[in-house]
Model the fold of this input.
Amino acid sequence: MKKALRKDTVKEIKNTFKRFLSILLMAFLGVGFFAGIKATSPDMVETIDAFYREQRVNDLQVISTLGLTNEDLEELKSIDEVEEVQGNFSADAKIELENKEIIAKVMTYLPMNKPILLEGKYPETENECVVEKSFLTHLQKQMGDSLVIEIEDTKNDKGEAVPFLQQKEVTIVGIVSSPMYISRDRGTSKLGNGKVDYYLYVSPQNISASEIYTEMNIKIQGTEGLITSEQAYENRVEDVKQNIEAIKQRREQARYEALVGMATKQVEEAENEFLKKKQEAENKIAEAKQEIESAKQELLQGKQELEIQKNKAETSFQQADKQLKQAEFDLAKKEKELTKKEQEANSSFTSLEQQKQSLREQESEIQTGLAQVKQGIAGYEQALQDSSLSEAQKQIIEQQKKKLEEQKEQLEQNKLQVTQGIAQIENGITQGRQELSQGKRQLNEAKKQLQTKKQELTQTKQNTNAKLTKGENDLTTANQKIEQGEQELTKQEEEANTELASAEQKLMEARDEISQIEHPKWYILDRYGNAGYTSFIQDTESVANIGKVFPVVFFVVATLISLTSMTRMVEEQRTQIGTLKALGYNKIQIAGKYLLYASLACLIGGFLGMSVGFVLLPKIIWMMYGMMYQISEIHLNFNWVYGGTGLLLISLCIVGATLYAVMMELIHTPATLMRPKAPKMGKRVLLEKIPFIWKHLRFSQKVTVRNLFRYKKRFLMTIIGILGCTSLILAGFGLRDSIRSILPSQYQKVFHYDEQINLKNNLQQGQKEELIRSLANLEPDEKSQEKTKEELNNQSRMEVKNEKDKSTIVETHMTSGKAISAKGEEEVQFIVPSQAQEIDQVIKLNDIKTKETLTLGPNDVFLSDKAAKLLGVKEGDTLTIEDSNEVKKEVKITHIVENYIYHFVYMAKDLYETMYEEPYETNVLLTKEINLSAEEIMQMPQVASVSQVSSMVEMIQDTMDSLNYVVIVLIVSAGLLAFVVLYNLSNVNISERIRELATIKVLGFYDKEVYSYVTRETVILSLIGILFGLVAGYFLNAFIIGTCEINMLRFSRTIQPMSYVYSALITIGFTLIVNLVTYFSLKKIDMIESLKTVE
Amino acid sequence: MFGPSGAGKTTTLNILGGMDTATSGEVWVDGKEVTKLKNKELIQYRREDIGFVFQFYNLVQNLTAIENVELATQICKDSLDPKEVMKKVGLEDRMKNFPSQLSGGEQQRVAIARAIAKHPKLLLCDEPTGALDYKTGKQILQLLQDMARKENMTVLIITHNGALAPMADKVIHFKNGTAQDIQKNEHPIPIQEIEW
Done:
């Protein structure tokens, strides 16, 4: 290029800096956005790759349902491509804190999958542990605090149950961040409410059963140069996976046999012991029986002896009784005699008494006579004494006295006789009485004696009887004892028998258990087994997908705008081009200036764009994802491939457009070029032919309408530019809306249940029914108990409805598997409802086309729509389904149903049963409005795990929120683009019409009038652009969603009305800003310069 | 206004028309000191007091002849009826044509119509015949003269064609950026009689 031209170019840039800047800005935005967003995904992947490399995260992981042994470890190590294998231990633990109970994943701290130490130190001894940061912050714990970790016992290599940890109480010594949990998702657990809250690491020394590993972490050779999730890496991993797959069955079998062997040995030991015990018990019983037998013998002897003694006593008693009777008899006789004698004596006594009485009368007569005599005597004596009395007298008296004395003598004699007679009688009576009383006494004596004897006999009898009774009692007691002994023996025998029986039962059970030992199953997981990693990689894919669509729009818009800009520039310099051509410069030399101009703008803009794009976009996106993932800083790369591609593309677009514009001019002859270009013809527009409208337009409106159609290129460019921006913004919003609506769509339109309760395996039907009853708050004693099974079957075996609380429980059978079509395969969840019409209460099966809610017929198979799309199957097509046992079956899809999250295949029970030839079995309950918390449900013995829709929703929401950030980046970038586009077009507009604008300024249009004269067009064009943009945005959104949709999710293609409003408002906002800039540019238009000459 | 290129005719006209500002001196139009007017007042001055006719007509290409006139009249208070004006310039039959459909003379007539329709105090014409052929130029000059005579309008014409001087009432000679002298023509000659 000639020097003058170079100078000219530099000057041109200086003079038309605004134009240069706008092209530069287009290149900047185009390249920056393209390169930046393209680089973000690889940068993210590289970041996680470096992070995983640093923490030595496993490439593969083998988990077995029954643990892994050192032999497994050696076998895995011996696989060629395997670089390192480490056995690890992990378990879910319950940790009680002051006010709550949390579920934690306990892992061992090993060099592989090594957590990053944030604070403190790694656990070194068995009583140390490290936790994640949120554990401390959320639970108000500190370093140095100790925790008690409760973990279910595990089985050691001998198959014995041992505690998982040696030391349950551990001290927090550090804070770590695990590469295995980069997202907030901590996984599920069979404990508590079914959700793991935190993770923590303990020292491997703390593991009791250190020979049985929970998992094997494997690092693969030759992955050094490969980047995780990239095809080469995936292939490498897949190869090794195949190799492990090859030893899998053998190792599973070996483990099974080992377990069976161990169990068999144990059962045999137990059996021997059982037999020994049985013998012992039998011996003991026999001994006891012997004893009882001899005791019985003794008892018999004692009885006989007692009998003899009894007899003896009986005989002696009889004799004694006889004697006593004789004596009694004699005594009675004697008594009789005595009584007779007494009677006789008494009668003689009576006569004697009578005699005595008469004697006494005589005696008293005598006495009276005597007394008279004595008186007479005494009177005579007195008379004698009387001196006066003559002797004669005295003599008479003396005589009389003598007579009296004689009488007295007589009387006294009589008296003596009488007295004697009385004494005699009295004597006789006394004597008789004495005799009598003697007889009586004797009799009494004899009686007494007899009595005594009798008493003696009674005593003896009593004694003897007592003795006998005692003997008898003794015997009875002995008998009772024997009986008791016998009873006890029976009892003991029974007990021993039951004990033995139960022991035998146990033995049988143990034997049964051996037969029931599951065949261990190995799961060979690659990194996608880790939820955090998977979601991260999925996110990088969404970012990559967005990078596929959005930059294209950017490029298209940028190209169009640059084309307009450069065409204008070339047109402006038409005369100069003509002059140069006339001067003899060739086409290339002339075009060179413009190409250089455009290239410079592209290069500077492109490089600036790259430097900003490569840093800013990944950083922004990372920052937003950083809230989701715990990975340190993003690794930024200057990605030459993307940068170069972007630059090349934008250069191709802009420089190509310039070349096109120049060439269009250069085909003309210099003469033509030097003459001013014929001004564009004014034209009537179609609208003028409709006078009804045209006549009602104001003058300025007419002008605007005409102008709109006059500058067709600008018209188109503006509309396309605005359309592009609006559609990008709308697509951004639409993406956000789609993401936001997934959850409500799934959990309001499709799924209506609150909890999914997974049942334990091998439950009896009764246990299930019991569970359902308790979930439904029905007491087992209530009337439902009375319902016969049949009734339950008919009415509500599967779904017990309680009028009181309206809880709904629906029984289903769920398994995960694959659906395979010619187009590919997808992981799906099979749902077989126990009662086809009941599933309706918790899952709405809406036909995707008719929107009708369907019921599963006996031969129906429904497939969820996203899966149908991915697999390329329609209603009526045949699909191969594979269950978890890898059994493949062909089914005919009868309907495609609405679904948003995951893939589902709904199958009728009848079809399921006939197809798999096994009876339907409920393993999952879907519940709604039951009055029990997740914890309460979890505590029921039949329940394996509970997942609550609310917590599931929360988790998914987190993942989805991250996509929002990308949307924000999109909206901001699209807005920027809108701004640049409008600014550019406005500049072109002004420059193209500068004469016209100058003229109307001369005519005396006020600044505002000039402004509205121009911007009215811009506004209308913007509005049209926005309108079309909204329509285009709808389709762009559909397209973007189609490309960046995650396979597991179906984004609904609805855009919220508000999003349309926002998109329009944002574009209008930018239009207004640009118009403001235009206002000042218009003010600056120099009328004189513009009017001087026609260019 | 006569003078060679660069003598300052156009600058004077521009200052007079309120399109440019004077670095020094005063310009008075109808008792108004134009040099002291603010931007907005200047616009108003252009709008109400000045009519401009350019060498290259400067018609808005997208508007028909009459619409170009309307462009001016719609912002003016006491404007003339565009149709009347069009009749006056002899274009009543071509009112609905676009500038590109008109000849140069016709376009210039439209430009004049646009300028006079505002009923300005001053009609400023910068080389109105510069881009026209002899005959058409004459017609335009005739039109301008008629306007001045019939409408009683002050018409200022820039030309470097000295032959036109006799038709003017007043002739200003420009040289080296200054008005050298101002001659008054007592007897201006009608344009038809001038030949050049």
Summary: Chain A has 25 helices and 23 strands. Chain A touches chain B at residues 678-683, 699-700, 702-703, 706-707, 710, 995-996, 998-1007, 1009, 1087-1088, 1091, 1093-1094 (CB under 8 Å).
